[in-house]
Amino acid sequence: MACIAPSESMNNCEADQTLTKNVQPVINFSSILEDEETDQYTDNLHENSYILGIKEYIANRNLHLSKVISREKRAAVLICLFEGLEGELRVILTKRSMKLSTHPGEVALPGGKMDEEDLDDSATALREATEEIGLQSSLVQVITNLEPFISLHLLTVVPVVGLLSRVEEFKPALNADEVDAIFDVPLDMFLKEDNHRRLEKEWGRLKYVCHIFEYESPNKQEIFHIGGLTASILIHAASVIYQEPPSFSEYLPDFSQLQFTLNKKGSC
Fold this sequence. Notes:
This protein is α+β, with helices and mostly antiparallel strands. 24% of the residues lie in helices and 27% in strands. The chain has a domain at 71-247: Nucleoside Triphosphate Pyrophosphohydrolase (Alpha-Beta Complex), CATH 3.90.79.10. The chain has helices at residues 29-37, 41-44, 52-58, 65-68, 121-133, 228-242, 256-266, and strands at 2-3, 74-83, 89-96, 107-108, 111-113, 141-145, 149-150, 156-163, 179-186, 196-203, 206-216, 223-227. The strands form two sheets. Strands 1, 2, 3, 4, 5, 6, 7, 8 and 9 form a nine-stranded mixed beta sheet that branches. It has a three-stranded antiparallel beta sheet with strand order 10-11-12. Residues 1-9, 11-22, 31-50 and 62-67 have low confidence and may be disordered. It holds the Pfam family NUDIX.
């Protein structure tokens, strides 16, 4: 089992400098620290300007989902962000245990299916993070939920964005039955062509793109492959937070309009 202590910048303290972007994200950790120093963090949390960009983008887009989708078909994952040594946003990821019956050894965000006792999606994501990696919910400030994704198992997966402002207080405790390793990567790597490749796959009659990112651990001992639903969620999250699209094409070309135009001309 691999676990890198938060005292080493949560884990990957010597991140590749080529992965750091100049563009400023919507989330600004400096405003968090300033509020904490003036004891206004708790009172003014939901009014702070650093969350407004995300809230405006998300507003009214998935408000009804919590009442529409049943708990049996609902899951949530935690996009837990913290500030790296160079001021960059980093996101916590896990490598699933080889003991698991589904997706063993794959990279994932902390998360899982909603339980009956979970109040909402945030509660699901925080509970799963505590169970999987020992991340206490009191350390995470939930900012918002992003648009839901549909997994290949037809689960509705809700990404929950949270901030870990006091990363030094996080002491990872991995559940060996679920997690083999914990690591973190720069969020902006999911907007770059570097170390990225895409595969075209089919699901029934549907063709889709599977994005895969490679990340080498600072000690050069392991290369993590981040793909599937996790990669798609993080591409979208990075696009929202940095307010720019990825440098690569997210989707397959849509030829439906071309086919419609050709059919229309052929019938004339």
